[in-house]
TrEMBL record:
It catalyses: 3-methyl-2-oxobutanoate + acetyl-CoA + H2O = (2S)-2-isopropylmalate + CoA + H(+). GO terms for biological process: L-leucine biosynthetic process. Belongs to the alpha-IPM synthase/homocitrate synthase family. SMART domains: LeuA_dimer. Gene3D superfamilies: 3.30.160.270, Aldolase class I. Signal peptide: none annotated. This is 2-isopropylmalate synthase. SUPFAM superfamilies: 2-isopropylmalate synthase LeuA, allosteric (dimerisation) domain (SSF110921), Aldolase (SSF51569). It is an enzyme of class 2 (transferase). GO terms for cellular component: chloroplast. Keywords: Amino-acid biosynthesis, Branched-chain amino acid biosynthesis, Transferase. CDD domains: DRE_TIM_IPMS.
Length: 597
């Protein structure tokens, strides 16, 4: 990677001495009031700065063929396999928002869900197909919208019903092929499995879908000769992509690469389809296995943002893409993708917020310790509204898509913080923007909160909430402290039965005037799904298996005042719970069977 360091203005992170590393690739290029933040290469940037900002190219989309043999399609399954992470789920609106962001990122295929799981899942995939699947950009790019289906007509019908509205629909169907799965899960012979796979791929094509992907589940532990045979049969039946999964994360990179090479060399008709990889991370080798598969001839990689997924997760999109970006020309045979790498950070942040699955600090590419720079926004915040407005626009430099109302809210939130803090950093701004951009659907909005506490009297809180109709509600309560009192006052207004399971607070920056982010986990006792909500603004995750008769949700809030931050987090979690109840009936019976090619 020596070529990355030829620019004297760019030095490796290991040589930096900054005491406040962050992952945001930005720099405020002056202290004058009229200058806006900008992205540029400085001594505090990392080698990836210019890589993240480079252009991409993309060949014409043909289901079973790629005109450029060096191009690797990116199949994102964050909304399907990623949502199978323990405790992770998203509302339909959040799925749509993520799908739109994935389109900005430039993924070739979005696996939007498992339509047969429930009516709500089908509707979510259909909504993505209608909206995101028909938004063609000026270069003719539009993502393929894919739905997962087991090898049966009911699943395939549901998948087609959901994705057929997209400009480029795909059905992804699968069946287990390892000896242990066929014997103990399917209770089928090899001949029966081949016939099921062949007939269901043929059925999917008969519906009018000319883009059908087939996965032999647990291919990594399947008999090779049987794999060649079943893959040859589904090719004859009309499959356009063959996905080879290491379902249990069992393979070593050399093994998985050889598996792809052997399939390419021994499967009849393989020249007429695309070979794909899908690698789980149980042994921490998903990225390595995916790259090994690509080097061996696979031209589609199945990945998730932040590597989320069931058990130990999947190959991380950002790791695979940046490995190809950094080393593709040098050691990976010139392989490349069409990903707009400038959108990686935003995509990571959105998935982190909506899923509630926090990115570990040392996570490659998107972890907060992965990049470092000198903090670039250090201004006297009480002097000039123009300078405040300039800093408030910082998230736009990173690709945040903020509408005018949210931008106005962000500006006034920023100004309020600026009146209390001497120095505003980019971390402060990003905490605030997360609190605005990733808000749950507003059922209740915090108006005011006032508390009294200390050693001389009984703690007391007064809270004013505003409902969806704009009506104000005020309640007072006492408790063991200011937070307990405020939460009890909120519950007097909202009138729901919840239990606070977890409460934590962190300072965004150093100093006694630091912005605080509060994170809470609540449980609704009278519900039948388990969910959580997290992030700077509030996000949700939902799993039926975590709790048979409760609902767990995370909420977060940001602010200089720790009481206000705490109440905002609590209200966000309640909003998540109340909003998610609209989908509870549909969701309560889903996830009874795991779907993992």
């Amino acid at each position: 990677m020596a070529s990355l360091f030829t620019n004297p203005a760019i030095i490796p992170v290991s040589q930096l001495t900054s005491t406040n590393p962050t992952r945001f690739l930005l720099y405020y290029n002056g202290t004058t009031a009229t200058k806006a933040p900008s992205i540029r290469s400085t001594k505090s940037s990392t080698p990836f700065t210019t890589i993240f900002c480079s252009a991409t190219r993309r060949p014409e989309y043909i289901p079973n063929r790629i005109p450029d043999p060096h191009y690797v399609r990116v199949f994102d399954t964050t909304l399907r396999d990623g949502e199978q992470s323990p405790g992770a789920s998203m509302t339909s609106k959040e799925k749509l928002d993520v799908a739109r962001q994935l389109a900005k990122l430039g993924v070739d295929i979005i696996e939007a869900g498992f339509p047969a799981a429930s009516k709500d899942d089908l509707e979510a995939v259909r909504m993505i197909a209608k909206e995101v699947g028909n938004e063609v950009d000026e270069n003719g790019y539009v993502p393929v919208i894919c739905g997962l289906a087991r090898c049966n007509k009911k699943d395939i019908d549901a998948s087609w019903e959901a994705v057929k509205h997209a400009k480029r629909p795909r059905i992804h169907t699968f069946i287990a092929t390892s000896e242990i799965h066929m014997k103990h899960k399917l209770k089928k012979t090899k001949e029966e499995v081949i016939e099921t796979a062949r007939s269901m791929v043929s059925y999917a094509r008969s519906l009018g879908c000319n883009d059908v992907e087939f996965s032999p589940e647990d291919a990594g532990r399947s008999d090779r000769e049987f794999l060649y045979q079943i893959l040859g049969e589904v090719i004859k039946a009309g499959a356009t992509t063959l996905n080879i999964p290491d379902t249990v994360g069992y393979n070593m990179p050399n093994e998985f690469g050889q598996l792809i090479a052997d399939i390419k060399a021994n499967t009849k008709g393989i020249e007429n389809v695309i070979i794909s990889t899908h690698c789980q991370n149980d042994l921490g080798l998903s990225t390595a296995n995916t790259l090994a598969g690509a080097c061996a001839g696979a031209r589609q990689v199945e990945v998730t943002v932040n590597g989320i997924g069931e058990r130990a997760g999947n190959a991380a999109l950002e790791e695979v893409v940046m490995a190809l970006k950094c080393r593709g020309d040098q050691v990976l045979g010139g392989l490349y993708t069409g990903i707009n790498t400038k959108q990686i950070i935003m995509s990571s942040k959105m998935v982190e917020e909506f899923s509630g699955l926090h990115v570990q600090p040392h996570k490659a590419i998107v972890g907060e310790n992965a990049f470092a720079h000198e903090s670039g926004i250090h201004q006297d915040t009480g002097s000039n509204d123009d300078s405040i407005n300039s800093s408030a626009l910082l998230p736009l430099q990173l690709g945040y898509d903020i509408d005018s109302k949210d931008l106005d809210d962000l500006f006034w939130r920023f100004k309020a913080v600026a009146e209390k803090k001497k120095n505003i950093t980019d971390d402060d701004v990003m905490a605030l923007v997360s609190d605005v951009v990733f808000q749950p659907q507003v059922v209740w909005k915090l108006g005011d909160v006032q508390v009294t506490c200390g050693t001389l009297g009984l703690p007391m809180a007064t809270v004013r909430l505003i409902d969806a109709n704009g009506e104000e509600h005020i309640a007072c309560a006492n408790g063991t402290g200011p937070i307990d009192s405020a939460y009890k006052a909120v519950l007097l207004i909202v009138k729901v039965d919840v239990t606070l399971l977890e409460y934590s607070m962190n300072a965004v920056t150093e100093g006694i005037d630091a912005l605080a982010t509060t994170r809470v986990l609540i449980r609704g006792e009278n519900n039948h799904i388990s969910t959580r909500s997290s992030g700077q603004s509030g996000e949700i995750l939902h799993r039926t298996f975590r709790c048979d008769n409760c609902q767990n949700l995370h909420g977060t809030g940001a602010g200089v005042d720790i009481v206000v931050s705490s109440v905002r987090a609590f209200v966000n979690a309640l909003n998540k719970m109340l909003g998610f109840n609209n989908q509870a009936g549909a969701k309560s019976n889903t996830r009874n069977s795991r779907v993992s090619p």
